[in-house]
Amino acid sequence: MQKELILEKINQAAKILNEKNIDMWMTYVRETGNMRDPMLDMIVGANATWQSAFIITKNGDTHAIIGSLELENMKSVGTYKNIHPYLKTIKEKFPDVIESIKPNKIALNYSVNSSLADGLTHGLYLDLLEQFKETDYPKKFVSSEDIVAALRGRKSPSEIKLIKEAIAETLKIFDEVTKFLKPGITEKQVAAFVQNLVKERGFELAWDGEYCPSVFTGPDTAGAHSGPTDRAIEPGHIINMDFGIKINGYCSDLQRTWYVLKPGEDNPPEEVTRGFNVIVESITKAARELKPGKEGWEIDQIARNYIQINGYDEFPHGLGHQVGRAVHDGGALLGPKWERYGNLPTLKIEAGNVFTIEPRLTVDKYGIATVEEMVLVNSDGCEFLSERQKELLIIKS
Amino acid sequence: MQKELILEKINQAAKILNEKNIDMWMTYVRETGNMRDPMLDMIVGANATWQSAFIITKNGDTHAIIGSLELENMKSVGTYKNIHPYLKTIKEKFPDVIESIKPNKIALNYSVNSSLADGLTHGLYLDLLEQFKETDYPKKFVSSEDIVAALRGRKSPSEIKLIKEAIAETLKIFDEVTKFLKPGITEKQVAAFVQNLVKERGFELAWDGEYCPSVFTGPDTAGAHSGPTDRAIEPGHIINMDFGIKINGYCSDLQRTWYVLKPGEDNPPEEVTRGFNVIVESITKAARELKPGKEGWEIDQIARNYIQINGYDEFPHGLGHQVGRAVHDGGALLGPKWERYGNLPTLKIEAGNVFTIEPRLTVDKYGIATVEEMVLVNSDGCEFLSERQKELLIIKS
Fold first, then answer.
1. What are the sequence ranges of the domains in chain A?
2. In this complex, which of A34, A76, A122 lies closest to B328 when CB atoms are compared?
3. B105 vs B58, B80, B142, B294, CA distance in Å?
4. Fewer CB within 10 Å: N-end or C-end of chain B?
5. Of A35, A227, A316, which has the smallest distance from its Cβ to B119's Cβ?
6. Residues in B touching A223 (Cβ below 8 Å)
7. Which fold has domain B154-395?
8. How large is the ipTM?
């Protein structure tokens, strides 16, 4: 199935090259066991030890220039039509292959804005300059960031199916967590419980196991992107968890929020419910405006403003990111125009994009309210891929 | 233990910076979940989502400039003394931190020659040029390849201990394979047996599971760097397997060779034994000359010539590579001066380097004879870390 997925994306890439009027796109790598260009899984499906070039052209041709020891493996992977093995140096094959394409533009994976389009190392870039110093190819080098944003962003039906499967399995695990939570259990114990389920079911974690899941209980927790601690759940805590899995190469990324009733409480305190409801409503408002042609900062601003108008601090991150093979995927980002996000918040949203929507706010003395849903942008709006959390999950003491 | 290992290597890095007269070394990364600079595990031990700079100075100071959401995590990792969190852009902190160091040279992870010193992407390099365009820092950028080669190559006593442990566990698994092999079993079944043992024992594979282990039985097999196939073991086959594991972050990489007796045979045919013995002797001869100050191509040539003098084709790869956190580690390589190896075959071998020695030859009509051992370079020679295979392992039909 991975081979079919890759061929589907290569086919899509050729169409995008036509749309962007770029003749060839080259992913140039080596020692992918040490560091992998993030595009490799999507458009190649093989590893490389020695310098290797994977070329897709506007007319749909594919060329793999690889070390000769990897010829049999590349054949069995079966994703590239023309395979050019070399023994001592890639220069044995490189000039002829490129000459046969006669490109006017050569897209390479470098980008200031997008890490997913930035798999070319600076050393390999210098190597290309040196190899082609007596040609005019270096003048034709352009960034592949538009290609990568389109290709990763516009999910094919098979990709959406895989993402939905990852979401469904993730929500099942959240349900089991709801049964597991009780006072006295630590953040670390919750994380271990979740990771054990993931392992038992043969899934992978969507991100680093140090903070997948992230679990936060009560006030003054460590904050997003921190690992779980020995802090124990207590009555009166808001608990939230950020968690995702990867199945067949595709990710989920979701968050849910619980409240632990104190003895004598039948319902959460009014300020907890209010904070939670502001989060839910901010998601509704943002999703309502999410459609092709919008820019991500516009959607981010809707949720951010709504939360601030309601008297809470703005969240210290973007409202949402794309999800796919990578948990932070695609180009366009639902984020504020902060410099650390580069140009991603001003890229146009496209049909087929899968985004998280994940606002956050702090309820003083109780904890952090967050909900993270996943949505698919369609031709004139968006649909929720995850069944929404619209009410606080309640844990009895 | 990982924290102590990292602090040990940071300390060693500061000494190497003094030796190379470089004031500061900066590992500049982002979205390490998508692509990880290969130095990150050794000298940082944390992930980064937003642009992050990890700086080690000649006087042993360490600075981490990171997104504010990752502050708590970085504190709990505990490997960097000075942590500078930023909210909207790394420029909030970058200039002041570098100004406080006033470096004359700034080593960055880019290298044409070494993938392990080439973790800086071209996009992030362009980002640094832009950020520092009004300063003279860009003129001070130098490649970190000498630092990386020294730091990864000169193993500390704790690193050697971990590598020895990985080797010992690998050899135990080879012993079980010897008991498992028999005619009718396929290469894929052998690989599945091995991967199952690795999983049961809680180890990781040292490289991609598609060809870890690589298993080859009989003549005309797919060749190195190919995955196992449905080809079945038959009497009269030479079988060989290339396999390594990772324990606590450190790798092994070993190969062993078996011969399957035909009905009526008490011993392997003379040409099989002869080919195997040429491999063993080529390892002995190469190891005898392996010592600090030599260059890798000299050692490669000893084994390569010996095999050719004995009437076999030369092997289509280097004689050996360094091993450590990465299965292809360090700088200096025991390889021929082929262009695809860059300058690595001419780097000086140093005490503390751990190398594989892995010659290969084809015995016509029987299969491939390979043995891969691991050695540690000491002050005036080298010692074998793996118990050597000096005789063919025999499988009865």
1. 2-152, 154-395
2. A34
3. 11, 21, 7, 29
4. N
5. A35
6. 69, 71-72
7. Creatine Amidinohydrolase (3.90.230)
8. 0.88
